[in-house]
Amino acid sequence: MKKMILVAAISTMTLVGCSTTNPYTDEEETSRSTIGAAIGAVTGAAVGAATSSRGDRRKGILIGAAAGGIAGAGVGVYMDRQEEELRQQLRGTGVSVAREGDQIRLVMPGNVTFAVNQATIQPSFHEVLGSVALVLQEFEETAISIGGHTDSTGSLELNQGLSERRAESVGDFLRQQGVSRGRLHTRGYGPREPIASNDTEAGRQANRRVELQLMPMQ
User: Fold this and answer.
1) Domain around 15
2) How far is CA 182 from CA 131, 141, 172, 174, in A?
């Protein structure tokens, strides 16, 4: 029976997706949709086997694998497409795009987003953030968490307030561009979540950032 489950899962997975091309390296890599399909197909096949009578077990495995594979691939396909569009829109802008399972993380460096110690988005960044808003409007089943971050220079109170205002500025801009308020959540982290050492200027600059975490709505 284990062999039957595996065969059914593999067959279903091949119908859903195989690989995607990384827009930066032009190399093919396994898409998240395929990974999701594999997990869903195996789970579905196992459930189909467990809930079917002995005579109908083979049919139950095949039906379960197909249903589970499609469900598992659905979110992956959705996020794959969103990731691809964001990478195309943000190429060369200084904003990094990272994929973490079914979530996408955009890191916006503070030096290109805001002036020093300011929470007003620089006019030169409006077009970039506008491009992000266009993608978010297209993929309206995505929730957006916006986090402001600072380096450790200055008081904790000052940095906390600055990080909150910067996150809110990005959220306000996206709302003005038509992204639903209910999809947006803003939060300031101050200097508490550094991604580099605050002992160097380069590290402090990396820590001064706004991050957007994009998640499929459940």
Assistant:
1) 2-77
2) 20, 11, 12, 12
